[in-house]
Structure formats: structure tokens, C-alpha cells
Amino acid sequence: MGDFIGWILLGLFAGAIARRVIPGEEKGGCLVTIVLGILGAVLGGWIGKNVGFLPDNNPGDWLPSLGSIATATVGAMIVLALWKWLRK
Question: TM spans, by residue (predicted)?
């Protein structure tokens, strides 16, 4: 459960980064970007752990690793791009 909450918090930042990287006007605003970022980070984290890209966290680790940040950002970018594609 702690990993899930961590991915949600990381998703807030990943959504902001993904929004800056993917150009274009977002009609949903900041709230939609944050929600899509959270979904993308959770999805990216789940895929990263299941394919073995991300190791299990130690209980004392509270800072995300570089791999976690990259996985969350890529996941958020994918979800944001799919959202834009579906809205067209």
C-alpha cells in the first residue's frame, strides 16, 4: 500500500513534467493533467516492477530512485498522449 501512495505522490510531479514535454493545449486544465499523471505513474510503476526494471523498495527508502522518476514520467507521458489522441 505504501508503494501505491508513493506512486500517487510521484505522479503529481510526473504529470507536471509530462505536460511540459508534450506540447499542445490541454482543454482539461491542471486537474486533468494531475489525474492523468497519477494514472500514468501508477501504471508505469506497476509495469516497471512486473518486468523487473524497478526493484522492491526497502522500508527505509523514502526518496524515489531515478528509475522510479523515469518510469513515472514515461507512464504519464503515454497516458497524456493517449488522452489527447482519444479527445481528437
Answer: 6-22, 29-47, 67-86
